[in-house]
Design goal:
With 386 residues, the chain is an alpha/beta fold. The protein contains 14 helices and 8 strands.
């Protein structure tokens, strides 16, 4: 097992009716900026519950944060936060709202152009604290330090991480997710699955407990994912899904193990180019990346096939391929395609275009072994377009 230092400062308020308790978590007299997306919080009751819980605080609002949060939009919120001298940001929404709000918090006190946080990796030395009310389980943003921001004018989608990105507290009430459209639920299941795989399907380092944690998350998603799609108002099923998505990317299973994340880097480029849902880009990349890099990942792919899918017969290469096919079948069962041919906007020259864009960004050696090169990116995407 590799050396590691682990700290997760986010306080989780999990369960029914927990929004009502946020007032006790916010300092008296705090000036709060409530951020949200396209207005679903008005339809699912989150807005009403939140405003009631914030009674006695000075509250400002900023709505309209898009899926794949847009830099130009977020900078409007930065201006509002600076003008009103807010003390706390409260993000009510899914991963895009939370990610966007993490950037807002970092940008408000930032000296210089905030875009440098993403392009130049300029250090975030301080930030406005944030909290969250999760309405869409998928990204784990409610309990991690990461955020991904888009900029349409440059066709970029870039990530940053900061210790200031951890929410002070996060509310996870499964009931507020009951009204989510099936597409968003299936995307969330796939997103959480791939988050787990990025930290698990690398190479063995004797991290037995982390492996078992990761495998239990994958098995939970396989079990409850289709069920919670079929029964969206079943509290126990949805609660298991919500918690699995959080645990997939709160840092715990990634401690002391090598990590990949090349599927995400490739997927970000596809979203930036074509606007494809983030989770759907992951599903279109992952199986083919595993095939191209099966030799590098062989030991863990065999373990994955055995422990997650129960595949124990056949030659090693047969078991590996069977495990990859089982993963594809699972994604497809959720209504999520596993090939880029499902998207009419994807062009034939996409493999070369994505490889070139990654090269221009300096991402020429991705993955846990730095083996995902521009050449292998082209192979991966050619398989996805076959």
């Amino acid at each position: 097992m590799l050396n590691f230092t682990y700290q997760n400062p986010t306080k989780i308020l999990f369960g029914k009716g927990q929004i009502a308790n946020i007032g006790a978590e916010i300092p008296a007299g705090a000036r709060v900026l409530l951020t949200y997306g396209g207005g679903s919080i008005h339809r699912n009751g989150v807005y009403e519950q939140t405003v009631k819980a914030l009674a006695g605080h000075t509250v400002f609002e900023f709505g309209g944060i898009e899926p794949n949060p847009e830099y130009k939009t977020l900078m409007q919120a930065v201006e509002l936060g600076r003008r009103e001298k807010v003390d706390l940001l409260l993000a009510a929404g899914g991963g895009s709202v939370l990610d966007g709000t993490k950037f807002i918090g970092a940008a408000i006190p930032f000296e210089g152009a905030p875009w440098d946080i993403l392009t130049k990796r300029s250090p975030v030395k301080t930030a406005v604290p944030l909290a969250s009310i999760l309405t869409l389980p998928a990204t784990g943003s409610e309990s991690n330090s990461f955020a991904v921001i888009s900029r349409a004018e440059t066709s970029q989608k870039l990530a940053f991480s900061s210790l200031f990105g951890y929410p002070v507290f996060s509310v996870l009430d499964p009931e507020v997710t009951f009204s989510l459209p099936p597409r968003q639920v299936s995307n969330g299941v796939v997103d959480a699955f791939v988050h787990t795989v990025e930290q698990y399907l690398t190479f063995p380092v004797g991290a037995h407990l982390q492996d078992r944690f990761a495998e239990s998350i994958l098995q939970t998603l396989i079990e409850v994912g289709p069920q919670t799609l079929a029964k969206p108002a079943d509290y126990e099923l949805r609660a298991s899904f919500v918690w699995a998505a959080t645990m997939a990317l709160n840092g715990l299973i990634g401690q002391g193990v090598p990590q990949d994340w090349s599927t995400h880097m490739i997927g970000h480029e596809l979203t930036a180019l074509y606007g494809i849902d983030h989770a759907r880009t992951l599903a279109s990349v992952l199986p083919h990346l595993l095939r191209v890099h099966a030799e590098n990942k062989g030991e863990k792919l065999l373990q994955f096939a055995d422990r997650v899918w129960g595949i124990r017969e056949g030659a090693p290469e047969q078991r590996i391929e069977a495990g990859i096919k089982a993963t594809e079948k699972f994604f497809e069962s959720l209504g999520v395609p596993t090939r880029l041919t499902a998207y009419e906007q994807v062009k034939a020259d996409t493999p070369a275009t994505v490889a070139h864009r990654l090269t221009a960004s300096g991402m020429t050696r991705l993955g846990e072994r730095q083996a995902v090169t521009p050449e292998s990116v082209e192979k991966i995407l050619e398989l996805s377009l076959a």
